[in-house]
TrEMBL record:
Signal peptide: none annotated. Its EC number is 2.8.2.-. Residues 44-357 form the Sulfotransferase domain. This is Sulfotransferase. It comes from Carassius auratus (Goldfish). GO terms for cellular component: Golgi membrane. It is found in: Golgi apparatus membrane. It comes from the Eukaryota. The gene is LOC113067175. Belongs to the sulfotransferase 1 family. Gal/GlcNAc/GalNAc subfamily. PANTHER family: CARBOHYDRATE SULFOTRANSFERASE (PTHR10704), CARBOHYDRATE SULFOTRANSFERASE 6 (PTHR10704:SF4). GO terms for molecular function: N-acetylglucosamine 6-O-sulfotransferase activity.
Length: 396
């Protein structure tokens, strides 16, 4: 038998060289060039949006992916447990909530949900495919599309340990939030070496948002009060003030990420317009998947086609339901149903944001109702052709 005699120092240096090689290769192949090797290859995605902007749909696009653990609005728990306050004073609690959930630590819920806490106490829990799949529940295989109703009936458990185990078993943790109005509070998360955070910022034409908000007015009352810092405004003025805040926040976020972004933000932010998403669904989704390192599957492709081309059967009562109506028709509905007066009002309060994000204003009712006139500028254009606007220094 052949025997190798190797000295201890040689073995040690070989091991060292190997370790260095592994680390270097890992660094070269992970994208974007990552300072975050402590995230162990896990990717954390924040879907940042606003109410009635298509974020439930976008969330589902990630939720149904077999590599994704998804939760909708964990910060809802923060906002709903601290009433009579404003978004500004809640934002750090919201940020810390997000960080814990990204790290699969659900104990943060203790502060907001009475004990003992069941999985069913998590906001919209049964919409999360991962909570309906092993190891959380043995109802839906991980690569199948989940059924929310069945999940609700079969997948409740006591405690959040299984939810944590589920979270740990996926390569991607994706959270959807409508409760951020700036990016700065997220900077510590972007710098956190245990997180590999990507931000997808979904925006929508504020005129379409207004129409959609009017239809679900009641469901939004409490949130609106928090957005407005509990300011006492005439009722008919409120919807516009809320939208003004939202428009400003979109500008702030976009500008922070696109004009001289800090190093740790570079390559980690992607803006998407809802209108582009519904017009060019598959291509836009593939681009987002690529941005966060997910592959498209055949099951997902078929499902995406089905939900964007299905028949209308939306129940008005459920403001958060994703209905399978023709998505593009829905995105144009404001043009025929919203009065020109309201359109003008919204254009007034959101003018700068609309310019920045590539939405054209209409100057007459005729122009509004003429559906041939496209009011969404091509995507490439709004990447480069805008000037920093004065009003962006408005309050943070
Ligand atoms: C919690 O989940 C268990 C297991 O499904 C169930 O038996 C129990 O009734 C639930 N409790 C609450 C408070 O929902």
């Amino acid at each position: 038998m052949l025997r190798w005699r190797v000295s201890k120092p040689t073995v040690l240096s070989l091991l060292l060289i190997q370790a260095v090689t592994v680390v270097l290769l890992y660094g070269w192949y992970s994208r974007p060039p990552s300072q975050n090797s402590l995230s162990e290859g896990k990717v954390h995605v924040l879907l940042l949006s606003s109410w009635r902007s298509g974020s439930s749909f976008l969330g589902q696009v990630f939720n149904q992916h077999p590599d994704v653990f998804y939760l909708m609005e964990p910060a809802w728990h923060v906002w709903m447990s601290v009433k009579q306050t404003g978004a500004r004073s809640l934002r750090m609690a919201v940020r810390d909530m997000i960080r814990s959930v990204f790290q699969c630590d659900m104990s943060v819920m203790d502060a907001y949900i009475p004990q003992p806490c069941n999985v069913s106490k998590l906001f919209m829990w049964s919409h999360s495919r991962a909570l309906c799949s092993p190891p959380a529940c043995f109802l839906t295989a991980r690569d199948e599309i989940s059924n929310e109703q069945e999940c609700k009936k079969n997948c409740d458990t006591q405690g959040l340990k299984l939810a944590e185990a589920a979270c740990q078993s996926y390569s991607h943790v994706v959270l959807k939030e409508v409760r951020f109005f700036e990016l700065e509070s997220l900077f510590p998360l972007l710098r956190d070496p245990t997180l590999d955070l990507r931000i997808i910022h979904l925006v929508r034409d504020p005129r379409a948002v207004l129409r959609s908000r009017e239809k679900s007015f009641k469901a939004l009352v409490q949130d609106s009060a928090i957005v407005l810092e509990q300011a006492n405004l005439p009722e008919n003025e409120q919807p516009y003030q809320v939208l003004q805040e939202i428009c400003r926040s979109h500008m702030r976020i976009y500008e922070t990420a696109m004009i001289k972004p800090p190093d740790f933000l570079r390559g980690r932010y992607k803006m998407i317009r809802y209108e582009d998403l519904v017009r060019n669904t598959l291509a836009e989704i593939e681009a987002m998947y690529e941005f966060v390192g997910l592959d498209m599957t055949e099951t997902l492709q078929e499902w995406i086609y089905r939900i964007t081309h299905g028949r209308g059967k939306g129940k008005k009562s459920d403001a958060f339901k994703i209905t399978s109506r023709n998505a593009e028709d829905v995105s144009l509905a404001w043009r025929t149903t919203l009065s020109f007066e309201k359109v003008q009002h919204i254009q007034d309060v959101c003018k700068d944001a609309m310019t920045l994000l590539g939405y054209k204003t209409v100057e007459s009712e005729e122009e509004q109702k003429l559906l041939d006139v496209d009011l969404v500028k091509p995507n490439e254009q709004n990447q480069f052709s805008w000037l920093p606007s004065k009003s962006t220094t408005a309050k943070v």
